[in-house]
Design goal:
Strand order of the largest sheet: 2-1-5-3-4
Number of helices: 21
Strand content: 5-15%
Shape: elongated
Number of strands: 12
Distance between the termini: 41 Å
Largest sheet: 5 strands, antiparallel
Length: 691
Amino acid sequence: MDIKWRRYSHSLVTKAIVFIITVLCFTSAFTIFLNIALVHRADFDFFFENSYYEGNDYRRDSSEIVESLRKVQRYKSEQFILTGGTLTEEEIQNEESNLFREFEYNSRSYNPNLTIEENFKTFKEVYADKILQAKDNLIKNDLNDYHLAMQRLANYQGLLYYANSGGNEFTNSPDKAKNYFKSHPAYMIFDGSEQEIFPREINDSRDYYWVSASIDQIGLQDIMYIAFTEDYLNSKILEWKENKLLITNGLYQITGFLLGFAATFIYLLLVTGRKPNQDQEVQLNFINRIYNDFNIGMCIVLIALWVGAIDQLENLKSYKLIFPITLPIVALVCVLVLSLVKHLKNRTFIKHTLTYSIFHKLFKFINDIYNSGSMAVKVVLIVIGYPVIVAITFFMFPITLGVATWLAFKKVKEFNAIKDGVKRVKDGDIHYTINVAGEGELAKLAADINSITDGLYKAVESETKSERLKAELITNVSHDIRTPLTSIITYVDLLKQEKDQTKVEEYLEIIDQKSQRLKVLTEDLFEAAKASSGTILVNFDKIDLLSLITQGLGELDDKIQESKLEFKLSHSNDKVYIKADGKLLWRAIENLLSNIFKYALEGSRVYIDIIDTGTGVTLIIKNISAYELNISSDELMERFKRGDEARSSQGSGLGLSIAKSLMEVQKGSFNIEIDGDLFKAVIQMTKAELN
């Protein structure tokens, strides 16, 4: 016991340590991930970037600069925007179209009897102020966009640019020469059809298409030079290297923690719910009593709370609290997940849900009413239930209708099967069985009809067998009685004519033997009839079966010696008490022994076994038959049936039948078994209670 307890305690400690490692690994991996994403605002793409020029930062800056310069080229100046120079006819027409639709549906000045042109003319007069206001809004939007582009360009410290569109120049560079821009460590030159980007590795960036998309929109007549100073690039490259190192180390750490989490979590999945030396039984605890759907809901709520907490921490910039907040939530979720795993192993994942329990109990309740109720109750349930189901499943009405049609067709098919079966049985095919599966009303009806058919078949079979037994009984009784009676009549006639005294005595002796034989047959026949009728008076008493058999064998010692049989008595206790009638019990045993003396193989052994089964006592008597037992045990139990089919022995054929009837009136049982030439009689009796 101590060894088992130590093993169990060691297993619990191991599981606890592994669980703690699992939670710590997962929490650490998530904390590092969030620290990189939220605190350092770093992009994990740094891990795959070979240089700053191939990275997302350079791509974003370049695209934004090109886009801003392109807007400045388009807007030219504030004065140009304010005078409406940036407005296009298409923009003005779109605004007028929107206002005209408003005029058409909301203005009383609109006349549906006039043409569109006439109404549009009225619209221009009525909505003149709104049209002017719409144009002003477009100008304001362009002006805001222009100022935003200028602000973006101003935010880049170390950026040099020169843009020329149709003679309108815009620059912050002290030198407008192309070679001046090319003298810087990184630049982009767009001069008509000429495009040059340095360094060349920029073209190798997987996100270069973002830059090229903005470049493609620069007109052939436009000029745009962009250059980055060395100070600007050095700070950017240093920042990129720091982020690269941060991301690389972070990913290695995350990978290590996730591998540790995977290994420990898989271990927990394998051992959870198991005890040492009890690999087949899943052990459930109080946590596993939580319904699985509640369990899943709690996991979702915990994850949602965690997401909300992290979002709040980001707003408050309290990133140090990420680990202490994540740790308990991960631990709780892990416990709940392992509980779900236990139910998966125990095959109770679906059954141990509140949803399943409610629907199962509801279905069972309705099913109990359906099964226990009359046909009228079932029809009412169907009439009420089907519309409710249709209403609930209105979105899948075709499926509901299809299922109902299938069930109706199935019931009609079952009814037709019952109707055809009844017709076949009525026409005389009593062996026919109606096959209707399930436990419904029609299935029960089919089972009842099959039971009637089986009963009818058994009745016919029993009647046929009874008639056969009656015929055999008459034949056997007639044969067995006629044989000694014929001998008596014959020898009486001879005695009347015989004068020789010696032969007279011989004839009288034969007549006496045949008379005794006739007497035995008559008494056996009477006793068999009396035993089978159940009119024998039974006096139950507490009897020592071993003493009864030992005493009986002693009284039959002469016959035993004469038959040259060797009796072997086997018993477990010295005293074996049973509840029976001593006289009737010995009469049954004596019939068996008489059978043995008549039919057992001379010089063979007879085994008598007394077995105490606890609640009863079994007596087994076995012997080897001198005759070939080529008949079944059931046939041998029939009246006037003998082991020798030639009926040359002196038996009446009633001994076994009498023994069976005598044991049955004593509330016992009597059976015989045949295995080749081995004859085995088995008597079972009730054990007497000891005072």
